[in-house]
Amino acid sequence: MKDPVRALPALSPRLVDVIVAVALFACAFPGSMITFPGSDLGVSWWPGALLAGVSCVIVTGRRRRPRTTVALTLLGAFVMSVLGYLPTVLLLGPLMVALYSLALVADRRTANSFAVAAVAVLVGTSLVAGPAQEPLVLKLLGPAAWLLLPTSLGTVARLRSAYLVAERARAEHAERTREEEALRRVTEERLRIARDLHDVVAHHLVLANLQATLVARQLATDTDRAAHTATELAGSTSSALRELKSTVGLLRHAGSTDPPPEPTPGLARLPELAASFRPAGLTVTVRGEGEPRPLPAGADLTAYRIVQEALTNVTKHAATDTAEVRLTHLADRLVVTVTDDGTPTPPRAPDSPGPPTRDPSSPGLPPRDPGSPGPPDRSPGPGGPTPGSGYGLVGMRERARSAGGLLRVGPRPGGGFEVVAELPFDPGKNQLA
To answer: Are residues 22 and 115 in the same domain?
Structure first.
C-alpha cells in the first residue's frame, strides 16, 4: 500500500512560509483578546490583531533574513505588551517561529543571544506595563519559557542535521576508503603474482636455456652425455610447469577452502633448489648458523624466492661455478646471505661467436674453447642486464619489505657479489629499519 504522505507533492519553501504565516495568524488573532481572569481588556482588540498580522507577514522572510525577522517580531511583541496585551503563547507565536528559524541556521551563541535579549525585553515590559493583578511568577517565567523553548528545539534540530551530514560524509569516506583499500590490495596481489611468476619463469628458463645449449653442443661429440643433459632438461621444464601450475592455482583457489595443488615453497626445499642448479654448472653450498626457528609462511616463501632469484642472477651474470647460501638464525630475525666469488660478465657484442662455453672439468658440460680463460660466459646476449639492475633486485627488495625486513645487495670487498636479506621472525613487532 502506498504511503499517502509520501504520495503528496513536495511543497515549495515559499508556499510553506505562507501556510505557516496563515496558521500563526489564526492563533494570534484570538490571542489578542485573551485577558487575565477577573480583568477586562484595557485596549481595543484590533491593534493587537493588526500587529499580530504584520508579525505573521514578517515571518515569511525568516529563511532569507532570520536575524531581521527576529528583531521585527520582537518589536511587534514589545509594542503589544506596552499596549497592555497579555503575552501569551498565541500572541508570541510569530516571535517563537522566528527564534526557531534563527537557531536552525545560526551558531549557538548567536541564537542564545537573541533569545536572552527577547526574554529580557518582554519580561521587563511585563514588569513595567503588564497587568497589576498578574502574578510575578507568570511575568518572569511565562515569556522566558515560551521563548527559550523554540531556541532549544532549533539548536537541537541544527545539531541533528549537522550530525546526519557528518555521518553521511563519514559513510561516503568509508566507502571511498574501502574502494581504495580494495584497489590497493588488488594492486599488491598483482605485484605479488608478478614477482612469483618472474621468479619461477626466470629461474627455470635460465636453467633450461643453459641445458638446451649444452645438448646442442654435446650432440656432435658425446651423444650419451647429450641424452643425459636432455633428460635433465625435461626434468627442469617439468618442474617449471609444476611451479607455474601451483602459482596460477593460488589464484583459482583464492576464495576456496580446498588446499592448493602444490605446497608453497619454503626454506625446507633449499637443498632441492640448490641441486636444480647443478645441471647448469653451478655448485651451491647451503650452510646454517644458530638455532633454527620457524618463519611465518609469508616470510618463509619470501626467503626462498630471494635465494632463488639471487642464485638465478649468479647463473646468468657471474663468471663463477660456485655460490654459497648462509642462513644465520639470530634472536629476532633470520639473515639470508647469498654470495659468489665471480666477476660480472659484460654483455656480448652482437658479433660474438656461439653459445656460452663451460669448463671441461664440470660434469656434463662441453669443452671450453681454447684460449678462453676462466669460467664460462653466462651473459644473456646484447643489451642484457648487468648485476644490480633489472626487475630481479627490485622484486627481492619488495619481497623483503613486504615481510617486514630489508635487503642489501652489492659487490664484496674481496671480489664477487653478495645479497643479504634480513627477515624478522615476528613482522608485527620487529619492523627492521
So the answer is: yes
Distance CA 122, CA 75 (A): 10
Cα angle at 352 between 348 and 356, to 5 degrees? 70
pLDDT at residue number 130: 66
Residues 121, 23 share a domain = yes
Give the global pTM: 0.46
Q: 203: which 3 cell numbers?
A: 629461474
DSSP string, 159-183: HHHHHHHHHHHHHHHHHHHHHHHHH
332/257 same-domain check: yes
247 burial type by CB count under 10 A (0-12 exposed, 13-18 middle, 19+ buried): buried
Q: Do 425 and 334 meet the contact criterion of CB atoms below 8 Å apart?
A: yes
- For the segment 66-122, what is each residue's pLDDT rounded down to a tens digit? 999 999 999 988 988 888 788 888 888 899 999 999 999 999 899 999 999 999 998
Domain at 411, CATH number: 3.30.565.10
Distance separating alpha carbons of residues 386 and 383, to the nearest angstrom: 9
Cell numbers describing residue 92 = 508570541
Task: Centre a 10 Å sphere on the Cβ of residue 330 and count the other Cβ atoms it contains.
Answer: 14
What's the rounded Cα separation, in Å, for the pair 259 and 223?
43
What residues does 328 pair with on adjacent strands? 289, 335
What is the rounded radius of gyration, in angstroms, for the C-alpha atoms of the chain?
Answer: 44
Domain region containing 109: 4-134
Quick one: 198 and 311 in the same domain? yes
Q: In the 8-state DSSP scheme, what is residue 369?
A: P
Query: What is the rounded CA–CA span in Å between residue 109 and residue 138?
Result: 27
> Could you tell me if residue 81 is inside a domain?
yes
- To the nearest 10 degrees (0 to 180), the angle between helices 93-105 and 45-59 is 20
Domain boundary among 134, 163, 198: 134
Q: In angstroms, rounded to a whole number, what is the distance separating the alpha carbons of residues 111 and 107?
A: 6
Rounded to an integer, what distance in angstroms lies between the CA atom of residue 41 and that of residue 26?
Answer: 20
Task: State the pairing for strand pair 333-340/417-424.
Answer: antiparallel
Distance between CA 83 and CA 255 in Å, rounded? Answer: 81
| Winning range, highest mean pLDDT, from 14-18, 180-184, 218-222 | 14-18
